Amino acid sequence: MPSASLTVPAQLDSLSVIGEFVNSATRQAKMSEREAWQVQLAVDEAATNIIQHAYNDQATGNIRIEWSINEGELRVTLMDKGQPFDPSSVPEPDISSPFEGRQAGGLGIYLMHKMMDDVQYVFDASGNTLTMRKRFAEPAVADLLRFNLSGRLDARGTVSSMTPINAAVEAGARMILIDLTHVSFLSSSGLRALLLVRREMNERQGILMLCGLQPQVDEVFVMTGFSQVFDIYRTTSDALQALSTRSEH
Amino acid sequence: MEITHKRMNRVDLIQVSGRLDAMQAPALKQKIEELFTEGRYRIVLDLSALEYVASPGLRVLIEARKKARDWKITDLEGGDIRLAGLPSRIREVFDLTGFTSLFEIYPNATEAVGSF
């Protein structure tokens, strides 16, 4: 069960370190970009509350943060030894209230509850403990998006060919197979577009596979050294085979 | 977070980029307060380069708008803070917290400035 912990001073400039720490958790959970952002925001709000309220006039104390991943659930715990603070004691903001009456309080806690599946609070001899959980879906073979490109992937053809792929990436796709069987020509523009997709997939621990490269297209990959960088298969079925083998591990 | 400022004839345009969290929010608040002190109460916040917003950022926005609107330039017009170019994540936070209905939001800075 992957897990980690971190102790930082309860100060505003700890927020970026905490953000990085949460980042490594969501990356290991292989969460979608959206889920990762939701966890980031929830932990940011929780940490901010502790920083701003827990230790008040005393010399500053610490925040201890722990995360663990277990069976499709990420759990994040924040602990401090400051004065008792129960988030559920803060009234929920009235989000439909018109501008004149609208207050700014309670928004952070509200967002925490919206972003996470569960938020629990305990105060005891060890201090405040806030536990947040988020369930996430593991990507399945059924989530594979397949694209068949055709014609020339040159400066002109690339833009229209890549539009649906880029839209899928933007929407959070985690597994993409691009079939290049009917692509007759690839120039640096096409290669560059594919590299951008690959970089995005890498950042979210996703999978990009290419298959069906014609000899003249394959040669471009080889000459530029990028045949080592991409996941290239001879045929679609080779790619699908590799994918199902991978998900068995 | 980076703040850039452009003074126009009637309106001041502030562009905010990066993260607007508890650490960065005070800098935005301070910039807006500076403009208020100079008697400038028509402000557009261009948020198109904002990557992230947390509740302290929202607080700065709503408190600033309240203050801007309280100030009467003439008997007829007050000041205002209008927003431009909300990226989708920011928009989502606004929708969730009901903030979308608390501000005039424009697709881009030009339209927002032109609305004054």
Structure description:
The complex is a heterodimer of chains A (249) and B (116). Helix content of chain A is 39%, strand content 28%. By secondary structure, chain A is α/β, with parallel strands linked by helices. Chain A folds into 2 domains: 3-135, Histidine kinase-like ATPase, C-terminal domain (Heat Shock Protein 90, 2-Layer Sandwich); 141-246, STAS domain (Transcription Regulator spoIIAA). In chain A, strand 7 (175-186), helix 5 and strand 8 form a beta-alpha-beta unit. In chain A, helix 1 (15-28) runs antiparallel to helix 2. Chain B has 116 residues and is an alpha/beta fold. Chain B has a single domain, classed as STAS domain (Transcription Regulator spoIIAA). Chain B has 4 helices and 5 strands; from the N terminus they run E-E-H-E-H-E-H-E-H. In chain B, strand 4 (80-84), helix 3 and strand 5 (105-106) form a beta-alpha-beta unit. In chain B, helix 1 runs parallel beside helix 2.
Give a topology summary:
The complex is a heterodimer of chains A (249) and B (116).
Chain A: E1 3-9, H1 15-28, H2 33-54, E2 62-70, E3 73-80, H3 107-115, E4 118-124, E5 127-135, E6 145-153, H4 155-170, E7 175-186, H5 188-203, E8 207-211, H6 215-223, E9 231-233, H7 236-246
Parallel strand pairs in A: 6-7, 7-8, 8-9
Antiparallel strand pairs in A: 1-2, 2-3, 3-5, 4-5
Helix pairs in contact in A: 1-2, 2-3, 4-5
Chain B: E1 2-7, E2 12-20, H1 25-37, E3 42-53, H2 55-70, E4 80-84, H3 88-97, E5 105-106, H4 109-114
Parallel strand pairs in B: 2-3, 3-4, 4-5
Antiparallel strand pairs in B: 1-2
Helix pairs in contact in B: 1-2
